[in-house]
Amino acid sequence: MLISYVHNGGGLLVIHNGISLQRSTELEKLIGGRFTGHPAYTSLPVRYQSGSHPIVESLTDFTIDEEPYRFELSPHETTVVFAEYEHDGQRWPAAWAHPYGSGRVVYLMPGHHLPSFRIESVRHLIRESGLWAARKCVD
To answer: 0.90 exceeded by the pTM?
Structure first.
């Protein structure tokens, strides 16, 4: 089972609508949040919280045409929201990470469709997130 795998030291990288697994309360806790909906597809500036997490050390802010997913975050004490997007005059979580048992979990909001993955900054974000989840980078 996925929860046992991560709890026992595995890594999990969840991209965009992968959060739909949150229909299960246990998977919601694992991923760290619950999808609550999204306004219309639009252009979103994504900004990193400098120094907030090892994942963001070599990354640069970017703008993406995407669905502005909204979430209700789970109360993990160790969750770090390391990227946010701006929409309707507010800032919303775009990416977060946390340990789960002996494992690691990262959630990334960008990734609705193929053009999302053509953005070099998104590819770097996925790479760095995957390396962190797999314990292949330094904390």
So the answer is: yes
